[in-house]
Amino acid sequence: MAHLHTMAEPPGSHVPPDFRQARYPSRVYHGEHRSQGDVVTVFDSALPRCEGNPRALSLQAAHAVRQVSPCFGWGVEDDNSLQLAIALLIDVSGDPDVALRWCEAFASTYVARLPQIWTVPEIDIALWLYCYDNARGDALPGR
């Protein structure tokens, strides 16, 4: 099964013009607190289960965009949650500018509220991005 890609993206943006056009709608993110540290994986149900599927969500890719913490975290509003927000947004959108633009709002409204063990389909994050990207400026938190 091929991945669904957006058909017409605005220049300079990888946020789908419609959340139903998520880049990889078959992806699911999963996080859990373990004794050896917090683990976040990405599974793509459109691909066969193999060595690279599921894969670890890339902390290095998140650090390349903005390094605020040496690890991921969730369930509280802190630097670890912000680092996870950056990683999820970069993985979903493929756009560092989108990740930087929305990471703080995403961390406080979404990542900080995740339970100890969670599973989130990519489409949920794409929907969050779509809603925030299309919200009136006065409707957004902190404005």
Give the helices and strands, then pairings.
Elements (H helix, E strand, L loop, with lengths): L26 E8 L2 E8 L10 E2 L2 H7 L13 H15 L2 H14 L7 E5 H12 L10
Antiparallel strand pairs: 1-2, 1-4, 2-3
Describe this entry's structure for a reader:
With 143 residues, the protein is an alpha+beta fold. The protein has one domain. 34% of the residues lie in helices and 16% in strands. It has 4 helices and 4 strands, in the order E-E-E-H-H-H-E-H. It has a 4-stranded antiparallel sheet with strand order 3-2-1-4. Helix 1 packs across helix 2. The longest helix is centred in the middle third of the chain and has 15 residues. The N terminus is likely disordered.
Widest beta sheet: strand line-up: 3-2-1-4
Q: How confident overall, as mean pLDDT?
A: 83
Number of domains: 1
Rounded to the nearest angstrom, the radius of gyration is 15 Å
Total of helices: 4
Shape: globular
Q: From N to C, what is the helix and strand string?
A: EEEHHHEH
What are the segments in which pLDDT stays under 50 over at least 5 consecutive residues? 1-13
Strand content: 15-25%
Give the helix level as a range of percent: 25-40%
Largest sheet: 4 strands, antiparallel
Structural class: alpha+beta
Number of strands: 4
Through-space gap between termini: 42 Å
